[in-house]
Amino acid sequence: MSPYPSVYQIEEIFQDGGGGPEAPDTFVSHLDPKVQMTVVGHDHQTAGDTHGQDDIKDNHFGFLKEMLDFSKPNKVDVLRVIGGGESPWACVELVFNGKSKAGKDFHHECCFVVRFNSAGKITKVRAYYDSAHIDDHAKVHHEHKSKNETSDTVVE
Fold first, then answer.
1. CB-based contacts of 54, cutoff 8 Å, min separation 6
2. What is the rounded CA–CA span in Å between residue 115 and residue 25?
3. Which one, of 17, 36, 39, lies nearest residue 28 by Cα?
4. Which end of the chain lies in a sparser environment, N or C, as judged by fewer CB atoms within 10 Å?
């Protein structure tokens, strides 16, 4: 038996990260409590480092949960996994399809490089996102949110 998750197990871990409102929490359950995550980039709002399950859940996935509509069907398609099994490292290429809270289609392609410990938990993540795509959706989301907040204000 391999010391690290197999390609198929890794696919399941990442496919658990799509779906309904509990999906980010399901993915976080596969992270080591002291996991380190880096979203690669310089000029987009998801770039940077997060440390630990709670930080990733609250800050990284918190931002995505604020922007995406997890009450509607979402789907994660894992396109390929390289590594795993005998190697603690794996690269996961995936596509997330869903809807933003502004009603826009959210089709996001990304890649994760992850390291597993011997217990099968992810200890390191390097995420490569389409940063322009994330920023475009964040801008639309903030405009949509501001418009809704303004229309809810009663003027006397």
1. none
2. 19
3. 17
4. C
In the structure encoding, which two tokens stand for residue 77, read together?
Answer: 């398609």
Residue from 14, 17, 31, 35 nearest 92 by CA: 14
Within 8 A by CB and 6+ apart from 116, the residues are: 4, 5, 84, 88, 89, 90, 122, 123
**Which residues have C-beta within 8 Å of that of residue 86, sequence separation ≥ 6?**
2, 3, 4
Put simply, whether the predicted model's pTM sits higher than 0.90 gets the answer no
The angle at the Cα of 37, spanning 79 to 92, to the nearest 5 degrees, equals 10
Dihedral angle computed from the Cα positions of residues 46, 126, 132 and 149, in that order, rounded to the nearest 10 degrees: -20
Question: Tokens 């890649």 correspond to what residue?
Answer: 111
Q: Are 38 and 100 in contact (CB under 8 A)?
A: no
**pLDDT tens figures, 92-126:** 999 988 888 888 888 889 999 999 999 999 999 99
* Cross-strand partners of 94: 78, 110
